[in-house]
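A further point concerns the way the authors explain their paired sequence and structure data. The central task, working out the structure tokens from the amino acid sequence alone, is never made concrete. I therefore recommend that a typical entry be quoted early in the introduction. An entry of this sort, consisting of the sequence and the corresponding backbone structure tokens, reads as follows:
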Amino acid sequence: MINGKVVSLFTTPYGGDKMIPADHLSCLAGEGIEGDRYALGTGTFSKKPEPGRQLTIIENEALEALKHFPDISCLAEQCRRNVISQGIRLNSLVGKIISIGNVELKVHRLCQPCGYLEGKLKQAGLKDALWDKGGVRCEILNDGTITVENTISLVD
């Protein structure tokens, strides 16, 4: 069985605004995270809606690995992802159903870093450093709550 855990959570009501730490995320099936920019339609890419923009996850290990790049860093609260995971390889989950707490998610695709993040953080090379390690984009399949320390598991 593949298992990881949630180490931190973030939302923001508007695209481009600072990410706000949360102790839980209220997830709404087919919509997104209650109060988050994509559920509200105020996200940077809200004009291009798709199910895979409802919730994003990135490995804490990918953020920690940036210490090996001179002049590049990206803290959990800066990476623009909703869920920071530990101990699970996310790329292998594309196309699969996972559960976090009592929420089931379909992992749609990789969440490749973009020039937007690199420009926002003024860190040339960040996009390349996080390429194929920028996390995954998910669709929320049922209403529920995700909390810090929840287990992340593959659904059979």
